[in-house]
Amino acid sequence: MGAGHDHGPAATADGSAEDHRSRLWIAFGITALIVVAQAVGAIYTGSLALLTDTAHAITDASGLLVALIAATLVRRPATSRRTWGFRRIEVIAALGQAALLLVVGAYTAVEGVRRLFSPPDVPGGELLVFGIIGLVANILAIAVLASSRGSNFNMRAAFLEVLNDALGSVGVIVAAIVIATTGFLRADALAGLLIAALIVPRAVTLLRETASVLMEFTPPGLDLDDVRTHLLGRDHVIGVHDLHASTVATGLPTLSAHIVLDDECFTDGHAAEVLQDIRTCVATHFAVSVQHSTFQLETRQISEEESAAVKHV
After folding, report:
1. Which domains are present in the chain?
2. What is the pLDDT of residues 250-260, one digit of tens each?
3. Could you tell me the pTM of the whole model?
């Protein structure tokens, strides 16, 4: 016997994704200006730290553009061909941004080590000016995105990119001050390596989290063994199998299972009550509230026939 599913709210009360496009447009505009200013500065000064920060800013700008596209597509309604709409595109966008950050971090690490052995002449005063310009612009972008950074993977990736770029600008400023006051040219390469060290761990974390969603791993905080044990403890439930859980997009965990009930539940009309009890259980009992659940209710005979069929496949 098949049971229907419960599709609860996702990001907003009506189940639609929150609209962050205005914030993303502002952040994108600011970041695009940072790219232009820092590119001019990197060419003029020859600084690795500023060049790395420029590459990072380009990554930020492209990531924010992707985030804008994702934020637009995610609002398209579901159809019979795309039953979840474009909800998962925010995960794919964040995965792409994380990969770009890793590429930038790897390049910076290699070039930084090379420049430690052969540091070029970098003008500290000019480097300081461009570093301050980058920091001020990044602070503005951070202020725009801060309130929405926890909304979904997409917004989190965009916020982390701008935050890391701001920290990179701080590294540029420190390097500029050291070079201007002491003449220690390797400070530029060290600042570049520091930026790489800031980029890579956050990128790896975001990459791991988004990959786990695409691989349909169990949502963090949801213990399926605990779920199975709890469901088996409900009245009239004698078996649970084919239990699966995954995340479609931020705030949208899903769970499905085959539930074996006492045979009399299908003759006395009690099956519907058990189904409602199970749905309420997974939505309210666990740390992760699963509003979208799908359960197939079965008799013991159907369950045994399924098991036998699987063994012969």
Report:
1. 21-214 (1.20.1510.10), 218-311 (3.30.70.1350)
2. 778 899 999 99
3. 0.69
